[in-house]
């Protein structure tokens, strides 16, 4: 019975922790939804401005970039992480779906590469 009690307690604790983690991950903390996203310099991320997306840990590589898809599709690209950590990759622009000049934590947005690519027909 002692073994059964320990197993029940572990199961109950696990279920409780799962519930708490689920609740916190689906419901942002009060006020967090309107918090602005900050860039590497602590400035608010602006819409319509070029940014380079880099890993937080510089040892993990460089920035995001477009690379032509090797599967032979015409004008098809993959998003890759540059291997060289000093290669910032290709710039992107953040465009919120509902307007605004600053990207907030809860902003629904499009992220587009700023490159102008002309594809052959």
Automatic annotation (TrEMBL):
The keyword Signal applies. Residues 1-25 form the signal peptide. It comes from the Eukaryota. Keywords: Signal. The keyword Signal applies. One of its GO terms (molecular function) is endopeptidase inhibitor activity. Pfam families: Kunitz_legume. InterPro entries: Kunitz_inhibitor_STI-like_sf (IPR011065), Prot_inh_Kunz-lg (IPR002160). Belongs to the protease inhibitor I3 (leguminous Kunitz-type inhibitor) family. PANTHER family: KUNITZ TRYPSIN INHIBITOR 2, KUNITZ TRYPSIN INHIBITOR 5. This is Kunitz family trypsin and protease inhibitor protein. It comes from Davidia involucrata (Dove tree).
């Amino acid at each position: 019975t002692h073994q059964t009690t320990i197993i029940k307690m572990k199961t109950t604790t696990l279920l409780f922790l799962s519930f708490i983690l689920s609740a916190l991950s689906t419901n942002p903390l009060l006020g967090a939804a309107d918090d602005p996203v900050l860039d590497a310099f602590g400035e608010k991320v602006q819409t319509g401005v070029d940014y380079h997306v880099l890993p937080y840990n510089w040892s993990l590589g460089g920035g995001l970039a477009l690379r032509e898809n090797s599967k032979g599709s015409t004008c098809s690209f993959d998003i890759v992480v540059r291997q060289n950590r000093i290669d910032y990759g290709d710039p992107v622009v953040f465009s919120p779906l509902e307007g605004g000049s600053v990207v907030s934590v809860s902003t629904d947005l499009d992220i587009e590469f700023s490159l102008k690519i002309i594809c052959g027909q």
